[in-house]
Fold each of these.
Amino acid sequence: MSKSKIYLDGKWVAKEEAKISVFDHGVLYGDGVFEGIRAYDGVVFKLDEHMERLYRSARLISLTIPKSKDDMAAIVNEAIKINNLENAYIRLIVTRGIGDLGLDPRVCGTPSIVVIADQVALFPERCYKEGLEAVFVNTRRNVASALDPTIKSLNYLNNILAKIEANEKGVPEGIMLNTDGYVAECTGDNVFFVKGDTVVTPPVVAGVLEGITRAAVMDIIRTKTKYRIKEILFTPNEIFEADEVFFTGTAAEVIPVTRIDSRPIGKGTPGPVTLDLIGYFRELTKSGTHVRKR
Ligand code: PMP
């Protein structure tokens, strides 16, 4: 039996006791919000940014989190300490709470708060050296007028359908287009490509989650490198003509992509810009300088 302690509505409980009601609207309807967070060497990476995104997501679904951002951040910090973890993946969930079988959120009681700190499940190191393979999937990214992709909600079926397509093709990630045919993002990562000295990523209006890693990498490009960063709409063909492609995400960090739809990208090996950015990103996570000065 695992000794890990899960935060559940004010208590630290054993994994086996961390249970939620079947009447919670998080279970019944995917009604809730969440964050996936990393800690490096005992320091939570970009904690303020994750808190801001969580509370923004909650606001946009009219969910009032019954805790201040500071209290929530303290629980996240406590989660790694209580579980004796230095390097960890932290999943923070806020559900709508317990209601009845109707979907009206007004019938729900207090939102449930869950914080799980666990080991990080990473792509094998080989993928960072050789590059990842991906495919373009048929499932289009949700349109913002139906379900805004900038809301990190518990409703991930759009991404799961895309993931199933990637699974069926035997590759670890699927790239989704938006309904206009422009590249949006992956099932759980943001997309970048490199052409010459320019690094390109879709703007938020393409239908992407504003990744915390995406923002950190854009900041690195602006402040530490001679490359240019552009947020513009682009099509799959521009990806096939790119010198390099990489994905970013909390779990993946910065990962090179060397084959898409069975076609090699650039030289078919991780390119110099991506490798540079992996180096800078690792420096940032190891240095402790990722903690924002208050
Ligand atoms: N896009 C989607 C759909 C995601 O779920 C995630 C995070 N899992 C990302 C992008 C990357 O965001 P972050 O860098 O904040 O992890």
Note: The chain has two domains: 5-118, 125-287.
Amino acid sequence: MTAAPKTSSAGTRLGSGLFARLAGLAAPLLAIGMLMTNCTSHEAQNNDPQAIVARTIDDHSWARPQEARVTHVDLDLTADFNKKILSGAATLTLATEANAKQVILDTKALDIQSVTDAAGAPLKYTLGKGNEMMGKPLTIELPQGAQTVVVHYATQEGGTALQWLDPSQTAGKKLPFLFSQGEEINTRSWIPTQDSPAIRQTYTARIVVPSNLVAVMSAERLTPKGEPVEGHPSQRAFRFDMKQPIAPYLIAIAIGDIGFKSEGPDTGVYAERAILDKAAYEFADMQSMLDAASKLYGPYQWGRYDVLVLPPSFPFGGMENPTLTFATPTVIAGDRSLVSLVAHELAHSWSGNLVTNATWEDFWLNEGFTVYFENRIMEQVYGKDRADMLKVLGWQDLQATLKDLDDAKQPEFTKLHPDLNGVDPDDYFSDVPYEKGAAFLRMLEAHFGRKKLDAYLKGYFHRYAFQSMTTDAFVVDLRENLLHNDADLEKSLKIHQWLYDKGLPDNAVAPTSALLDQVKGQAVAFMNGAAPADLQTQDWSPLQFQYFLTQLPDTLTVDQMAALDKAYGFTASHNDEILSNWLLLAVKHHYQPAMPVLHDFLISVGRMKYVTPLYKALMAQAGWGPEMARSIYAEAEPGYHEITRASIAKVLPQ
Ligand code: BES
Ligand code: ZN
């Protein structure tokens, strides 16, 4: 516990403007009310879920929200593509404890120029030493009763959230591009705020850009065409409004030669104009997915749902920025075969954005729920066969990851609720929170049936809408609303073991897929000498080919690879999921004909899921691999995002 709040005066200290903002939102008021009282001995006994969340400490933020908490961020920023910086002001609205003397913000790689009150009078501040992972605490002295602080600042090159792309790194090749990636703890490197997922904030923004570029954000887009900037004819401004309180990692921005195409009444695609038509074709099912998702777990709470396709250096597959999912162009296969990624990011509109992990130790509450939900959407929209295949592929990844973590002697990272104190949350990133988390919900589904589990999940999203959640608080809720306080049942389902212990409990249900079993049979036949022409692959979908590649054993020869390549054209595949798996085999078996494609792939794509394993595989090829890895990396590195560089650094020692 950091500070002991003294009185419960939240109601009287909330300014009228703030009060109006919160009036329609019971949750933040409740949270503030709780933070004012939760340290009394009476409250310390309180075991209702919200009380548990309110007293949980986030080890990855310097903030002390019990004392002073950011409730709203208003940004006024200008993008300078020559200097590669954003600069301007962040005006923060605070909810403070009665005698609050200071507010502590998170910052990382920011130039803090000055801090003032609402009237422009300077406020005293200090930038602490901090550390490499968490950045530096910015402590601002608060005059009695202050509810607003204004931080004037600029970003620095080398921050972890922003990537500034030269025109050559874009699809259009003519104009530059900028995008942000907040999750997990990067927002502090472009916005000085309290960067903890339990400190929900609304935001507004005015973003000034060169007049040939468009700015979009994870918020309602108030000025789709931009508006003039007085005295600056070569610039225009875009304004945004996020009225729902969100975790700061979900504040996101992109600027570029961005166009828009509608997909349905509430859905559409943003992309560089050069690829807009292709992107719109790929995501044609967005509206059906949105409708299916709302039917499953309750109304969509965010107004519109759009996807923004980014340039290929985007380090992730997708990022669930509210109202505007950010996506890698590697999902544009041309045949809509990789759109489960959209189902995934859309599902986060409930699991993650509506009900949010309160700390990064509760990450599985975001990702495990989302993988489960994603698969339900896929089943609804594309049928059980496709959903089953996706489940099996995920399960297979989980088995491999658990084995790797075991070999690496990292049992802590096989837990759904790991201890991450002093650990970079990025280091915990793996299939465990995703697939073990989903397996936990599937175990509950197997026991209770879909009807009961769905009712529970729908209720959960409703009960904790616009709140943050911890694993401990979830257990209390689960007990009350699904287990009905049946302690024997809780024990027999091994709930505690699932959530707090390492490995996979033995009541996990292994998924099956008849379509993939058939593929497995064909892989065996091939390895036993059948020619590709004799294999029954005629009606295979991309997922089946993807699985086929995972079924080829280490004894695969270069001649066999050549035969497969000739029959199926893997080296020329437009499906990056298939291509990256094929390239892994090419590295492992030193299949030369794929090497030029490997080079081009690593130079152009920055998606970590693909590139990090390829560098790792190269490093394992004594004799030729490490040299090739280093030479390709030297060429590719300037184009990679800071996050991708950090990830490759782990497998490519200096
Ligand atoms: N929220 C994640 C991305 C993320 C996780 C960013 C942790 C930073 C830290 C997103 O929803 C996600 O899981 N993306 C996946 C795709 C998905 C289909 C599994 C990805 O990027 O590969
Ligand atoms: Zn996710």
Note: Residues 344, 348, 367, 370 surround zinc ion (ligand 2) (CB under 6 Å).
Amino acid sequence: MRTSPGSRILSVGAYRPRTRVGNDAIAALIDSSDEWIRRRSGIESRRRAADDEDLVTMATAAATKALAGAGVAPRDVSAVLLATMSYRSRATTVAPLVAAALGATNAAAMDLGAACAGFPYGLATADALVRSGAADNVVLIGAERMTDIVDDHDRGTAFLFGDGAGAVVVGPSETLGISPVVWGADGAKSDLLRYAETGTLRMAGPEVFRWATAVIPPVAERALEAAGITAADLAAFIPHQANLRITTAAARALCLPPHVRVATDVITNGNTGAASIPLAMAALNGTSGRALLLGFGAGLAYAAQVVELP
Ligand code: COA
């Protein structure tokens, strides 16, 4: 087993469903308006998966792009990790199906359940696998078909969520391309965001909003400290895309200098759960340097780390 001093993200790939849905179509079902949705969430539209765009096809498409970008052959993948909160079956998991579709026949494959914090949780796991020598190349995917778990008639959630998949390849590195993770969970508050008996999501929006805006600044500061840098050293801030107001409040609390690009993928793609960070990373294509990633959501779980962008 060959251990490695560090690991890094080699590439990123994205899959966004073909259909874009604007606010008006949703507002009609929940006695809302385009103006209210934009003002309270910053969201203008989101992607909705069609019947042929299931979790496996979306995740496989994103991972195929990431593998091509990294120049890694599917047979050289040691592990496929898939973060999702929208797969209904517990008897099978999605990752083995995606590994088979990719042709990653030598890979371990498992799903990760940390909801909207799933991507940074997965990145910490991938980093540990690579550094320990347990894996060479890890494909980490965040994929969601939130359409399957959101009630179109629920005023608190119907307008927020979208579908899609983002993937990265993590491989060995001589330097620390993925800095130590700062993570945790507050299960005592898990009732604030959970599945109802109907099998759809229910959220105490204002309470989740307050929790998120309180937890983000100290977790972000600890992640910067763990990486040995300050906000001025960042090229980008890529928080989970939950609500533009949460992102804006977090950027303000961190006193980010003007050169730091702040991910705002939520405006056109809504909240895509575990997929939102890799999708937002793909949208910042062309930015190089260090990025602070920060995921938060159901659990209530959170995780953050600084990465070198691919
Ligand atoms: N359309 C129009 N009006 C609505 C509405 C809707 N979809 N939902 C609620 N309202 C009304 C309420 O009835 C309330 O009316 P009132 O003032 O007359 O009582 C008012 O709008 C404010 O409701 P509130 O729930 O306090 O809104 P908010 O400002 O908290 O915004 C969210 C709602 C969901 C956008 C916001 O709470 C949020 O983003 N929370 C965090 C969500 C999140 O990030 N979740 C994922 C974490 S992974």
Note: DSSP finds nine helices and 14 strands in the chain.
Amino acid sequence: ERSRLQERAEALSTQAGLPAETPDGRSVDLSVNIESIYDFSTFDISHTDGVGLLRTEFLYMERKQFPSEEEQYRLYRRVFENMGDLPVTLRTLDIGGDKQLPYFTMPKELNPALGWRGIRVTLQWKDLLRVQLRAALRASAHGKLKLMLPMITTLDEVLEVQEMIRELRAQLQEQGYEVAENVPVGVMIEVPAAVFALPQIIQEVDFVSVGTNDLVQYLLAADRDNPFVGNLYDPHQPAVIEALSYVARIARAEGKPCSVCGEMAGEHMNALLLIGMGYDGLSVAPNFISEVKYAIRRTPTQASEEIFQEVALERSGDGVRRVLQEASGRLMQITAAERIGKEPSPGQIPGDGNGQ
Ligand code: PEP
Ligand code: MG
């Protein structure tokens, strides 16, 4: 077992610096989720296509009070400088629910997950958002900034933030600050209402990224942190699969980039499933980059699409997992064939229902 793991680690590391591209040449944006400045020391930036989710809460959690514009500016600038030419998707402050700040007493709520969190907080406490957006826009002169809004429920929320961004940009320029010309603005799809409002929302944004950690909890009405409903909190439920494929379909029809940044994307078979649905980007925790890249580089798009087609016929989470497990077995056969230096037969490609 040890030598098998060793071989696997070697196989992963030899391809880690190569592009996340399928054998048929489709390139996938494989980015990284960052939740602390220390995360940067845990992976090689050149192995990624950028930061797909910068959870800015860490900056707020690691202080004794709300960080000033200047503090935030300096930190974001450092992040951009770390990343060079690669884009950084900065998510605006997402507190409330499972994420609390030690110095900010949230009101006692009966249903915190359905309450005052994410964009709902920062659109009410607008100064919080203004300070963060000003810092981010100032830092945009030193890198490639993308802004992402958490917990969006309605189109109105998106339009309100965009108006604020326009005002702040003009204000900063008037004050003599340099701001990047093009700062794409996207939303996280985490609330079921945003899934169904996507045909309208998509026209107003530059990209979408699905936060499956929350979307799963809200779709299935199963608290992400409550073990009593842990069996229901299941990203493989057919209802979740349907919602995910709907989002990809709508975004692609509009020609807008769509990605998944929830933990789900970090598991390599889920990653293939999402690619099969049409997602063009995945953002995963640093330790999953090489595993996901390995799977992408070995699986033709058609095979991923077949995995999705098979999954879409299943009627339960267990059924979906069985399909993914079988496809994973076929992927392992390819790896084994590579180890002994022979080409896998077409029937061994994951997703090829005939190959066993
Ligand atoms: C998510 O909800 O999937 C997500 C990426 O955001 P967080 O886990 O920080 O809520
Ligand atoms: Mg979330």
Note: The two ends are 23 Å apart (CA to CA).
